[in-house]
Structures are given as C-alpha cells and as structure tokens.
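We give this protein:

***
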Amino acid sequence: MNEQKREIRALEYVACDLVAKLDTLFCHFKWWDVGHGLDLVIKPYANTSNDKVVIIRPVGWQQLSHIGCRFEERDGTWRLMQGQITALHLDDESFSANFFADYGGNRGNEMSLRFEGVAHPQKG
C-alpha cells in the first residue's frame, strides 16, 4: 500500500509542476484560472503499471474543461509524455491545444513543452 501512495504522491507532484509551467505561459488569458485548487484523477493507461493518465481539472472549470496528460515512469521517475488542454468554460471563447514533452539535448531531466494544434474556436 505504501508503494501505491508514493506513486500517487509522485504523480500529483509532477502534475502540479506541469500546471505551474503552463501557468507561466497562460496566466494572462482570462480563461486560465488555476489559482483555486486542482482536482486530479489518476487512471492506468493501457493496463501497464508504469504508464498513467492524469486528468487535471482546476476548481471552477466546467466538467468538459480539463488538462489531460499521459505520464510514464522511467528509472523510478514519472515523466510527462503528452497532454491536451481543453478549455470550454467561457461563453465567448474556448481554447484547445495538444502538447508534448521534450527532454532532449544535454539538459538532463529539464523538460520543455512543444505545442501542436492550438485552436481558439468561437462558440455559437
């Protein structure tokens, strides 16, 4: 049971670290309001113990708005692999983006994010 608790805490930590990184990018957008807490749901991905999906829903975001991420455990460390932001919680705008983690180069465990498919679809 302690191993499962450690895994959950480690995933919570990397998920919150990701939100902090995203906050530096999106803090000036009115739809990006993550300062009231986060609800996290952790699920297995493809029935493996070292691959998890984490659904992050900032408190106040509607049910369909979330940050979905896939994390993989490598050498005892959970690392972000990919994710998607879906923000549909405002009447006049929405936002969607896919992102991928990049641990390349000589930076060791330093992570950068690469975004693809960024969209600001208009509602209604």
